[in-house]
Amino acid sequence: MGRRNVLLIVVDQWRADFVPHLGAGFLRTPNLDRLCREGVTFANHVTTAVPCGPARASLLTGLYLMNHRAVQNTVPLDARHMNLGRALRAIGYDPALIGYTTTTPDPRTTGPRDPRFTSLGDLMDGFRSVGAFEPTMDGYFGWLAHKGFPLPPRREDIWLPQGYDHGEDAVPGVTDRPCRIPADLSDSAYFTDRALTYLKGRGDRPWFLHLGYYRPHPPFIAPAPYHAMYRPDDMPGPVRAATWRQEAQQHPLLDFYLRGISQGSFFHGAGGAATALDAAAIRQMRATYAGLISEIDDNLGRVFDYLQETGQWEDTLVIFTSDHGEQLGDHWLLGKIGYFDESFRIPLVVKEGGRSRRGGEVETAFTESVDVMPTILDWLGGTPPRACDGASLLPLLQGGPPAGWRDLLHYEYDFRDVFYSQPEGDLGLPMDACSLCAVQDARYKYVHFAALPPLFFDLAADPHQFRNLAEDPAHAGLVKDYAQRALSWRLLHAERTLTAFRATPGGLEDRAAPQG
Predict the structure, then answer these.
(1) Cα end-to-end span (Å), the chain
(2) Which tens digit of pLDDT belongs to each residue from 170-187?
(3) pLDDT tens, residue by residue, 62-114
(4) 52 is catalytic
(5) I need a labelling partner for 173 at 20 to 30 A (CA). Which of 3, 96, 296, 382 fits?
(6) How far apart are CA 214 and CA 192, in angstroms?
(7) How many CB atoms lie within 10 A of CB 392?
(8) Are 39 and 384 in contact (CB under 8 A)?
(9) Is cis: bond before 150, omega within 30 of 0?
(10) Assigned CATH topology for domain 5-412
(11) Which member of 52, 179, 388, 437 is catalytic?
């Protein structure tokens, strides 16, 4: 292999059980299927944090939430942290980024009037934007205007269903209608256009491209023909208790979200509570979600075909993943919140240049989003930072998990107040007490809260996590064991940028450096 390229595809809000190679036979994704045949698909992969900003901070720094501390959307990322963009520059790559990272800058590096502090997040330092979406989707809406599409006074009204006007009483939530934007002008088409423009302009020089897609993130409405590609009756139904009030009895945090999530965050122009959606509406929403997935897949096919036609497919490490999952009505929830698997389990498919030695196989070892950064650096001949919490996946692509590979999945969630959600007062908690961490293996899952009761689930008997066993005397020993394992995990991964250095009579020593 000559030059080495990297295509890191990061979709938004695509959960792991919507991958055909892992059993979602109701979906049509021929291009993702191709990637799965030529690469390795990881069946037990999680993001280590939600929502978008914290998830992408972990993905692109290789750090757990407890170390990077960009704990919520809108919370700044400390400028001292190494990230993938900066690390790639250090080994001679000019890292291009299409899409977004939802990163709020370190206020110590700028001033309070910086306009980046008025948006949900901006671009992470170190990357070169070649197809911006943030802030506030200006890049996409400007592209639409440039293409001659007449933008409505409220630009977001392009995601209203055809046949409705914003402000009408009859504006639906869940809908079987297409949105007003045609497929060739959708945000997925925009990102693909930017990707092909970048790749065609790059010539024969090695490249790294972060190719981000906004979908299947809400609003859950798809352009024609994707809006009608799937029948609601063919979608899996929601996994939830008989009523949302029954579900809410499990935990105070779950009760808070079930009382507060509105449909308007997921269906443009809609009102009402998310818990008002019946099973038929959930299936229709999932059919639309599946249509958005197939739209992305068709667009990825354009990129894959170009790389194949130009002989670059064999030189390119391709990684497909998502920032986080989506509840999709399971447990009566929408979005990416809390502690359920639907929010944290995400796709990961990795294809080395050429066909991977294990092409087509499914790997069941526990993998996490923090593994992506060290994998890319390892493949390009770089060295992951000492502080990195993840590990390179190259050994798993070439054989199987090495000795000492993790035996638990780990993830975290911080639920302190942000401008669109205020649980602190409702739960009676101070800001820094609004956090949880979860550890789980194939059998058990333990969720520890800083200041709320814990949760413990037997995943063999209760895979969908309805019955909390944390206070069951028969499980007290197991609860103690998993709580201790969670504590050990946090101790082992406490921030360690400088902990390998020593002052000695002979001068500075780095115990982490390779010994010659």
Answers:
(1) 28
(2) 567 999 999 999 999 999
(3) 999 999 999 999 999 999 999 999 999 999 999 999 999 999 999 999 999 99
(4) yes
(5) 296
(6) 11
(7) 19
(8) no
(9) no
(10) Alkaline Phosphatase, subunit A (3.40.720)
(11) 52
User: Which tokens sit at 412?
Assistant: 């975290």
Q: What DSSP line would sit under 429-479, residue for residue?
A: --GGG-EEEEEE-SSEEEEEESSS--EEEETTT-TT-----TT-GGGHHHH
Q: What is the mean pLDDT of residues 120-137?
A: 92
According to DSSP, the β-strands at 501-504 and 507-510 are antiparallel
Q: In angstroms, rounded to a whole number, what is the distance separating the alpha carbons of residues 166 and 270? A: 9
- Determine the Cα–Cα distance for residues 31 and 33; give it in Å rounded to an integer: 5
Domain locations along the chain = 5-412
Q: State the Cα–Cα distance between residues 172 and 167, nearest whole angstrom.
A: 11
Contact 422, 261 (CB under 8 A): no
Give residue-wise pLDDT tens across range 450-503.
Answer: 999 999 999 999 999 999 999 999 999 999 999 999 999 999 999 999 999 999
Model pTM score: 0.97
Exposure string of 283-308, with b = 16+ CB inside 10 Å and e = fewer, is: bbbbbbbbbbbbbbbbbbbebbebbe
Closest alpha carbon to 11 in 217, 222, 285: 217
Phi then psi dihedrals of residue 311, to 5 deg:
75, 15
Residue pLDDT, tens place only, 340-354: 999 999 999 999 987
User: 56 vs 72, 75, 94, 243, 342, CA distance in Å?
Assistant: 11, 13, 19, 33, 17
